[in-house]
Amino acid sequence: MMKTSLSEAAPVSGALRWASQQQWIDEALERLLPGEEASPEVIHRAMRYSVLAGGKRIRPLLCLEAARAIQEETPGIEHPACALEMVHTYSLIHDDLPALDNDDLRRGRPTCHKVFGEAMAILAGDALLTLSFELLVRTPGASDSQRVQLVRELTSAGGTLGGMIGGQVLDLEGEGQTPTASLLDGIHRAKTGALLRASIRMGAILAGASESEMGALSRFGEHLGLAFQIVDDILDVEQSSEALGKTAGKDAAQEKITFPAVYGLARSHEMAAEQRHLGRESLKLFGHRAEGLHALADLIVNRTA
Question: CA-to-CA distance for 230 and 140, rounded, in angstroms?
């Protein structure tokens, strides 16, 4: 049974805090996804297979901690938090397809299309995207204005104009091109950074952030999104497939434009630390209320998978 109070699921600090919050998110996802027995069963099995396969739940965690920076409890926060994870998972299912990154491994097990076939994987991704918006418009306790803002935020982050799909297009078009800083910036601010920034803003929207609070959290999201992608690119070079739970070394094999390709590994490490510092500076307005966001920034930059 899912805990109704997030504070009950969040020890003060450390690994137990994240493990407890990840469990809280997993319980919410379990409850909000259609059951495997619901017809048509195969699509629901495919959706649940990919969403409930584990993962760090970074986007929902950012949503929860951004809300907590505004107020301790935000009723209904599980809806935008889970919607974000569903959109993220949909993007992974589609990225792994043969027409895109053509990967056989995700989160340490066979990708969705390897288990359910390409057609069902495409539909599972489509279904998760659709369900994410249903969750937002059904967010308990949200005003009509907040629901509209949540939907607008997610559509913008996932779309073609500076959003995730636009970034994916730039990434595909960039394969084999000479890696440059401008191409790199355009790809990753859209492909990865937009959804991470939206995760923070959506938590803040539901919690009723002021204009100044939203501005500070948005700046934090921009810096953290860049730090996240830098570390992701580094790990693709430095870690094994077993450690990552996905195929390592694919960026270089596909001649993708990455931070190590443009700046080298040593400078990439420095840049990730710099972006974390700038992000932390953005949170001064919140004082101790931003401790969770500070800890997540450390978790993202220091991660090894």
Answer: 36
